[in-house]
Amino acid sequence: MMLLAFLSQTLRIAMPYLFASSGGVLSERSGLIALGLEGYMLTGAFCAALGSYYSGSPWVGVAAGLGGGAALALLYALSSIRFKADQVVVGIAINLLATGMTRFFLRFTFGSSSNSPRIPGFSEASAGAGFGALAHSPLVWIGVLLVPGVAWLLYRTPFGLRVRAVGEHPGAAWSVGIPVFRVQWLAVAASGAIAGLGGAYLALDQHQFTDQMTAGRGFIALAAIIFGRWDPARAALACLLFAAAETFQIRLQGAQVIPSQFVEMIPYLLTIIALAGVVGRAVPPAALGKTSE
Amino acid sequence: MSAPAAATPAPKPATDRRAARRAQLEEAILPPIVALLIAALVGDVLILVYGQSPGAVYRLLLQGTWGNAYGLGQVLYKTTTLTFTGLSVAIGLRAGLFNIGAESQLAAGGFVAGLVGTILPAGLPSLVVLPVFLLAAAVGGGLVGGAAGVLKSRWGAHEVITTIMLNFIVLALLNYLTAAHFKVFDTLHTADIRSGALPRLSALVPAFHGSAANMVFFLALAVSAIAWWHLFRTRSGFELRAVGLQPEAAEYGGVNVGGVWWRAMLLGGVFAGLGGLNFVIGYKHYYEDGFSAGAGYLGIAVALVGRNNPIGIVIAALLFGTLSQGGLAVNAIVPKQLVDVLQAVVIIAVATSVPEVRRLLRLGRRSPDA
Question: CA angle, B227 as apex, B221 and B229 as ends, to 5°?
């Protein structure tokens, strides 16, 4: 029973990471750094809150979250693919933009600088806690199925092959007739939409939008992508690992075995170690970050 | 935009150089202007959506920043920190490296300086204490920046990712150290430094009374000058720029590329770390958890708009300092977050228009009727 509670809490914490890293893998494998995941999620969470609040239906919220994340990703695509802007600069700015926009419109629509009113979500009080409550949320099912879904897309479909080709060697892909930019646009838009779903999960799960509610989750997802060496399944395992560490810390809070700040560091430390190649070097897609002319 | 010198078949060297300088200047100045126009447009839309008049908001923004001495003092205070973080990012970019870590380097510099300040006995003369503070802040920031530099040059770990990860690691560590060991009861800041606190600018110009601007502003100008001299007048600065332009060629020319990389990151950390002095010994006289408040990330914007040139950086820091302070000035009629949006739009628009402006200018110069 303890174990089951631990696992369900881990999955619950891992959900937003799973969404964001599944989306981010697509973007990164097509050669576009996914620095904006945090911003896509935050925008997705806010749009989901808006949609759910005004329609009364969480499904509208899900659609709005998906659309919000995708819209921000399209701005990133416009700058970095169409206009060859520096991906790192725009990626960082996308996050600043999302923070500013959600705060501005939080005050505009709900007249608050901290949170939205309560919004309809999927979970019901009768379902209780644990796996019962999780199984009630269709977003959990979508998120869990996304992992094999993205893996299948990437390794088993012509589109996935194109994404990988474009991310490794855009010049070669171009010469065999792959529409490099269109593939990248699609991959980036999909990454925004999927990360936006992660934001929608957060808002609907907590029944409200709160300022900065993503709290660095997009960067943890980015860490998971790198730690998982740009592979959807391994990135998902990394998400679960990071989430398990957090759950562990929450469960031990009373005991004060390890200060919470040190548990917070785990994903980032592991990522640096993976990048430095202490245990099998993490090698990114060859053309990551270089938008071709 | 005509550039006749470039179109004539055999231009004299002097005019050729002048034309090149002018082209350089056009390339540097046009993108920020385009970006500001786009930002103003976005701002107009948001203000109108909010049901206010853009003219009134912008007037309020100017009045609250450059319109009175207090506002100007606050602008100068924010400009000071942003100059340091802008230099930090720029020195990395000059070496071809992206330092996203100015945020934690700034915090670490402030933290070490704040700690040293609690240890030093009271009543020491400023002339003795000041170098100690400079060293402490430089060590704090330099350690964080240098770590990313060594990870890059020794193990090839990409500095964009390691500096982002280091931001989270270092900020969590500082939060732990402050909360668990060094805080004053019921706060999240350390004890007051006992000597070496620098006077506010209001000591020189009484009109600045009440604003946070302090003597560290002059340190920022001095460090900018030193950074300029280092980049453009010294051998190691030349090597740094050579590596940034073409690492393979620099390597072939006998430059130790790995060494330049870690030195550039170390120097970037030192610049950002010194920025911590603005808050710790110039303003509050203690270290407070979270004082960096995004100034490190804005440093990226400052470096970008300032075109990685120390003079440009001071100007860009003034621009972003004005916007930051301006948010507070307009908060009464529109949410201050309007300014955060505008800052992000400026960054995206500059980054987007730099390659495009360069392309259009080249196109214009090549056309026969120019």
Answer: 105
Dihedrals φ, ψ of B288, to 5°? Answer: -125, 135
State how far residue A104 is from chain B, nearest Cα, in angstroms: 5
For residue range B141-198, list pLDDT tens digits in order.
999 999 999 999 998 888 999 999 999 999 999 999 999 888 888 888 998 888 878 8
Widest CA span in chain B: 75
Q: The tokens 């301006």 sit on which residue?
A: B326
User: How close A19 gets to chain B, by Cα (Å)?
Assistant: 20
% of chain B with per-residue pLDDT over 90? 65
CB distance A277–B156 less than 8 Å?
yes
Question: Which residues of chain B are within 8 Å of residue A264 when distances are taken between CB atoms?
Answer: 168, 172
For tokens 């990226």, the residue is B300
**pLDDT digit string (tens) for B57-76?**
999 999 999 999 999 999 99
Please name the amino acid found at residue B312.
G
Contact (CB<8Å) A97/B98 = no
**B200, β-bridge pairs:** B214
pTM of the model: 0.91
Nearest Cα of chain A lies from the Cα of B356 at a distance, in angstroms, of 6
Q: Which of residues 329-348 of B touch A (CB under 8 A)?
A: 335, 337-345, 347-348
pLDDT digits (tens, 9 = 90+) for A25-48: 999 999 999 999 999 999 999 999
What value does the mean pLDDT take over residues A250-277? 82
Instruction: Decide if A90 touches B, using CB distance below 8 A.
Output: yes
- Please state the ipTM of this predicted complex: 0.91
